[in-house]
Design a protein that fits this description.
This protein is an alpha/beta fold. The chain has two domains: 1-101 and 133-346, no CATH class; 102-129, no CATH class. Helices cover 26% and strands 34% of the residues. The strands form six sheets. Strands 2, 3, 4, 5, 10, 19 and 20 form a seven-stranded mixed β-sheet that branches. It has a six-stranded mixed β-sheet with strand order 1-15-12-18-21-11. The protein has a two-stranded antiparallel sheet with strand order 6-9. Strand 2 (20-28) and strand 3 form a beta hairpin. Helix 6 crosses helix 7.
Amino acid sequence: MSYKTVSIETEKQRQRALDVDTQLPYQVAGEMKTVPFRKSAGEVEMPVLSKPMGELITTADGLSELVESVRLDVELGRERVPVLYSPIYDRLEDANFPEVFDAKWALEGRVVFVQRLENEEVTFGTLAAEKGPIARIKSYAAGFEYTEEMLMYNQAFNVQMLNRSMGEAYNALLNHIHLDPIVSASYDADHSTDPQGDDDEYYPIQIRKTLKQGLIDAASEGRPATVLLAPPALQWDIEEALRRHVISGTEYPELGGVDTVIYYGGWETKVGEKTYSYDGVGSTDAYLIRPIRGFKELVKRDLMVDAQPGPISRLIEEQIVGRAHRGVFAAIDENVQKLDLTEQTS
C-alpha cells in the first residue's frame, strides 16, 4: 500500500521498535530535576528502588528517587495510548509563548522565482496569514495520592498502576484536544461530500467513490487533502476501498491522493463514580485534511510531574500532580472536507 496507517496498534508497534535516549523533567518541592529515559528495541530498564516507598519519602534524596521512578512509569503509560495527530500538526514549542494568539499569527512565506529581464524589479515574497480561530494556551492538570496504607505496606503494584494511568490519560488528552476540533466542527455544503455509489453496490466501492469525490471537492476549493481521519470500525472497508480491485470485469486501480490514514475512536475512563469520555470519529464520518499549514500544536510547557507532601489529616503521604500548558491552532474551514460514508442500500 502506498499510504501510511496510523492507529493505536500501529503506533504501539512502531514505539516498540524505537531507540530513545532523552531526559524527562520532574519537580520535587519546587526544585526542577530530570531523569534519563533510555529505550532500546522497545525495552526500558527501570531502576530498582533502594528502599521501601515509605522509607524513601522521609528524606529529600529518597523522595527524589521515588519521583524519578514515578516519572519513568508515567512515560511508559503514555505508550499505551500513542498520539495519533502528528501527521496533521506542525509542533511548535516555546516557553515564551503568550496566552492568546491572534489567527493571523499562523503565517507562511510565499516566494516565487521568475525570469528577471533587464531593468525589471525583483518579485519580492510575502507573508500570508492562515484564517482560523484565536488560539489560546490552556492549563491541564491531573493528580493522584499515595495513601499511608500504600506506603506502609509497600504496595508498589498499585502505585505503578496509578503512575502509568497518568501517562495514558495525558496522551488521551493530547489526541482529544488536537482531533476534537476536526471531529466536533460544523461543516456546510461546501465542506461536505455526500455518499457516492449505487444502492447495494459493494460497500468499499461506495467508500472509494466518496473518497474520490471528496478529494476532487477539496482540491476544487483550493485545499487539496492528503490525510484521511476515519473511525476504527471502518478500517477494513477503507483499506479495501484504497487498494486495486477488479469487480465484474471492471478494474478499479489503487486510489491515490491519500498518503496517511488515521483511525481515531476516542477514549473513555472512569474516575471514582464519574465517567469521562472523548468522542472519536463518528461511525460513518471521515475527514479529508490538508495537514500542517493550518494546524499548529503549541507547547508552552509539556508534561511536568511534581511531588508535594499530602494533607496528613486525610492520611495522604504524598501527592503527585502532572500538568502541562498547551494550545491548538486549527483552521478547519481552509483545510478540512467532511465525508459521509453512509452505506447506500435500496
